[in-house]
Amino acid sequence: MTRQVALWAVLIAALCTVPFMLPSYFLHIAIQVLLWGFIFTAWSMMGRFGLVSLGHGAFMGVGAYTSALLWNLYGLTPWLGIPAGVVLTVLLALVIGYPCFHLRIVGHYFALVTLALSQVVALIVIAARDLTGGSLGMTPRAVGHSVAALQFPERVQFYFIALGLWLIVLAIRHWAGRGMRSAALTAVGEDETAAAALGIDVLREKLRVTVISAAITAVGGSVFVQYLMYVNPETVSGVGISLQIVFASIAGGMYGALGPTVGALLTLSLTEGLRIAFGTSFIGAANTIYGILLILFIVFMPRGLLGVIEDALARRRAGS
C-alpha cells in the first residue's frame, strides 16, 4: 500500500509539471486526454460489472447542452448550470434505468435500449435548432477570462481543472469498487438471480451505479463544452460518441483504474494522427477504425492494453 501511495504521489507531481513543459498543441491534447479519461472512467464503472450502456452519449449531451443553454439564454453561471445538467441527467438515467432493471432487461437488450436513448437525445437537439443551433452547433457566449463563466483563455487553468476532475473520478471509482459494494455489483453482473437469493437488492445496486456513472458523464460533457467553447450533436451526443466511449474504455482496459485514460490517449492519438495524415479526405475514418479495433480488442485483448501490460509485468516478475 505504501508503495502504491508513493507511485501515485510521483504520478500526480509529474502531471502537475506538464502544463509548464508542453507546447500549446500538446497541452491541448493533454487536457482532452484528462477530460475524456474522466468520461471513460465513468462508463467503466458500469461496464466492469456487466452493464454495457451505449447511451452515455445521451448523458453527456444532456449535461453539455443544459449548462450551455442556461448560460446563453439566462446568463446562469456554469457553476449552477452544471449541477442543473447533472440533475436532469440523473432523472433521465432513472427514467431509462428503473423500468429496464425492474423488468430485468439485461445484456444486448439493455445495450439496444440505451443506444436508442442516445440517438433520441441527438435527434431532439437537432430538432430544437432554434435554441441549440441544430447540426451546426452553438457557441457559449464568450466574456473573456471569468471564473464565474468558467472561461479561461489560457489553457493552464483548464489543465488543472481537468486534472482535478480526473483525480476525483479515480477516487470515486476506488470508493465504488471497495468492500461490499464491489462484491454486490460483481455478483449482480454474474448472475442476478443468485445475487437476489443472497439478499442483494439488485435493482438498487444497478440504479446506484448507473446514476453515479451518468452524473459524472454529465459533468464531463459540461466542462468539455466550456473548454472547447463550442458544442454540436456530433461532439457530445448520439451513437458515434457512445460507441467511442465504449471502444476507448474497452481498448484501454476498463478493469484497471488507469485503463480508460489509456484508452483516451489511444483514441485521441488515432484521431489526431488520421487528421494530420489525411486531412478532410478521409472523413469518418476514425469511427470505422474504432469499430474494427473494438472487435479485435474484445476477441484478443478483453482486458485492454493495460491488462496486456499488467500480464506482461506479472510474467516478468514470475520469471525473475
Question: What does this 3D model show about the protein?
Answer:
Helices cover 77% and strands 0% of the residues. The chain is an all-alpha fold and 320 residues long. The protein has a domain at 19-236. α2 packs parallel to α7 and α3 runs parallel beside α5 (107-127). The mean pLDDT is 87.
Task: Tell me the layout of helices and strands.
Blueprint: H1 2-17, H2 24-47, H3 56-74, H4 78-102, H5 107-127, H6 129-132, H7 155-176, H8 179-190, H9 192-197, H10 202-228, H11 233-236, H12 238-252, H13 259-278, H14 285-300, H15 304-319
Mean pLDDT: 87
SSE class:
mainly alpha
Return residue spans where pLDDT drops below 50 for at least 5 consecutive residues: none
Strand content: under 5%
Helical stretch tally: 15
Rg from Cα: 20 Å
What is the element string, with H for helices and E for strands?
A: HHHHHHHHHHHHHHH
Distance between the termini: 22 Å
Helix fraction bin: over 70%
Shape by Cα distribution: globular
In brief:
With 320 residues, the protein is an all-alpha fold.
Give keywords:
single chain; 320 residues; mainly alpha; globular
